[in-house]
Hints:
This protein is mostly helical. Helices cover about 75% and strands about 5% of the residues. It contains one helix and two strands; from the N terminus they run αββ. Keywords: Nucleus, Transcription, Transcription regulation.
Amino acid sequence: MPPLPPTSLRTKGQSSSNPNVDPEKLKRMLANRQYAQTYRYKQTWRMMQLEWIVQSLEADIQWDSTMMCYLARQHYSLQVENGILKQKLGFIYHEIGFKKAEHVQLKKEEDGLKKVFAEQQNYEELRKSSMASAQFVDMDQPGRPTYNFI
């Protein structure tokens, strides 16, 4: 039903107090107008709420976008650092391998030197013990060397 024109635009026969208008119809028209006004108010209010929600979400998107950029830079930086640390770790493992090989070689050399030293000690002990128990050439007799064992 079309809205009623304002009172200044109404013609003579359209007075709201017209006795020919059914009171139920008039009551229904007023209720419809009231409902339409309430509906428009609620619709306007809902539109404002949705606009606030949209603005809030746009602000969230802006914040999240900024955070994503920051975190992407952080992620890239950490990836670079991780690569550098992995490379250093690889060099260290390589160096450890060389050090272990060098250690094994030095250990073998040490064992060999200990063996030589032990043989020299045994030789010295044998020499001292054989010198103590044996008497050497008697120089007083020029033609014949003699050995005297005790």
